Amino acid sequence: MAELSNDELLDALGVEVAPIHAASRTPFEERIIAGFEDIQRFFEEHKRLPVNAEGRDIFERLYAVRLDQLRKLADARTVLAEFDTHGLLGATATDSAQVDELSEEALLAALGVSTETPSNNDDINVLRHVRTSTERREAEEIADRTPCKDFTKFKPLFEQAERELGSEVRKALRFGRDATIQEHDFFILEGQFAYVAQMGETIKMASGHNDARLRVIYSNGTESNLLLRSLQKALWKDDTGRRLTSPSMGPLFSDETEPEDIETGTIYVLRSMSTHPYVAKHRELIHKIGVTGGKVETRISGADKDATYLLAGVEVVATYKLHNVNRVRMENLFHRIFSNAQIDITIDDRFGNPVKPREWFLVPLQVIDDAVERILDGSITEFAYDPKKASLVSID
What is the pTM for the complete model shown? Predict the structure, then answer.
């Protein structure tokens, strides 16, 4: 790995390297920039200028008044020239009411915010109540978490990640020099799993750094929309913060043996004879995938007494002979590939206790055969299973 420069290392650690001239900004300039960034965020989110009109959101009206006042200040336009990437200082809101109809003081009063007399060094109404960039960044780092309304969609992902961590398919590494964050990454933050479900478009910050808005789902059923750099800093500050590595199965086939390797192995695919309504309806599509170093017949004997096999007899519909295969890694690989097709079914075991078998998948047999071929030729990492298409699709 190439050596990182000081700036690159600090950036990887989430430490902002601000331009030298930023330190010489006056409080006046800081507040101008911070206030303008609020307006830019509104424009980027709504794809239009803020409007000061009756019935509009009070903050939108506030931004409209602020933008109008900034346009009138030559000093403000000079300070903001390098930040005005959308040309807002020269644009006009064609559908807006006269911004002078309601001053920012009146808008603030409507919000219940008390006003204060400006000092000689703070003579600008539009920015008197604006937080500085530093204050806003600190607030961003503690983004509010809200209940995740579609958590049922993400819960299986957390369960799978936990299983993979327990079986050492994934590893939990200290969040440090590798401070990259990408969509679908898993982390441990403050003792909870955190999953990056979505990553917005890249945002160019005033400091010159790139950032992005994230949708982060937590294993306790909450979510937040903090910035990427804020998540980096939170993980860096958390002594228990960890990155979960991507599922790395290691070499499945090799010329050298490992402690868990066997000389020969068999992948087997089973079909259940269960009379459970859901299983009976989809019998041709529901399959159990496993790997054994012995005889398949021995492995499935007594299936009708084992909840793992749905307390019913099974039919062996396919087998694949392998040489020098790691059983645990192979099974985990199959289960990861088809994790989004795992059936959700609960049955009572012989003692009346509810059991949820987790190794049955709603996948056509020909797709399993395709997966085996792609494992053998090493191309499986380029594909994912699409339940809607019932096939393996290339990962873009």
Answer: 0.38
